[in-house]
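Pilot study result, target chain (381 residues):
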Amino acid sequence: MQYKDKGDRVVFYTEVRNKSIIKSSPANYIISRDALKESGDYISRYGKTAQIVGGVRALASLGDSFHTSLNNAGLTWQEYVFRGEVCDSQIDSIMENARNCGAEVMVGVGGGKAIDAAKIAAYNLGIPVVCIPTIAATCAAVTPMSVLYHENGIYKQDVFFPATPDMVIVDPAVIANAPVEYLKSGILDAIAKWYEGSASIIGSKDIADIFDECALRVAAMLFEEMQNNAAEAIASVKERKVSEALITVINLNIFFAGMIQSLGIKAVRNGIAHSIHNGLTVLAESHHILHGYKVGYGIYVQLTLLGAQQNMKTGTAEFFRKIGFTPSFNELGLPYTEDTVKAVAEKTYNDPMMRKVPFNFITADMIAAAMHNIEKEYLTR
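Predicted structure:
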């Protein structure tokens, strides 16, 4: 199935049910402390003219060694400063600039949104895309999908591509020098793969296959490794140091989380935590909150809603405390009122993932009640 928009723009949206379309990892994944110094050689494999898309801080974090590497590789390049949302107008603007500079390869730099926008633009233009995550906040750099929003920041839909990114280049030193909140966000987003996958697969036995089973086992491994390494990795970033624990968590946040999502896209990807994230986007106050923080809150809502997972709440709350995260409206800086909770619950209830077994018994009132219970729980601590 294809989603068409604005005439010449066609975004591939694949319905994976009953199809064997497996895109588990990028063609090349490079992680090295010298990765940026060598990035020009890597990128030049895909073209001699590059458009580099990223936010102001992300582009600045690449440093002179990145630009020197591009020049030494004989690349012609132009930077596009990404601002705002992954929305139609932003993507059109990226595409127009890419055409004007004759880009043969797109380079997405940053965290989630700039990379997601670069991936959509590259697909629409039919050119390769290289992703350089400067923070380990999401798995966007690895996945064959992007999240599309409306201009006002409200979630619109997920967009899937027929292939994963052509290359991912990671320099752990850059991530070690980024604000620690981004790493925490990535940790929460990554562990959601286990919480959501273990719940989702229960209602997906008719379509689950060996790839979904593999995804779930990798998610369990990710969850265990995160328990062992997250706190030390966070401490490393606070000290601006690259440690083995940090490298492990970077790989878990970016590569393995993305691989799980791709391998288990039929039966493991669905879950309440990300639907709660999408629901929170109706609140303008949520738009500045990192993706993983909203997903982390969604994990706790999911545990509260699902009887089979409620026994996991104590351990989850302890892990959240260990990494310095509190899943509540108050701690996230969101307005906690009857109206805001109702609005989030309604948006969550209408999310496509919530209409699938085993979550289709959940009502908007149940979601709202769970959110109220969580707020009361944390107010009494």
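One observation from the pilot: Confidence is low (pLDDT under 50) at residues 1-20. A full batch analysis is planned for the follow-on phase.
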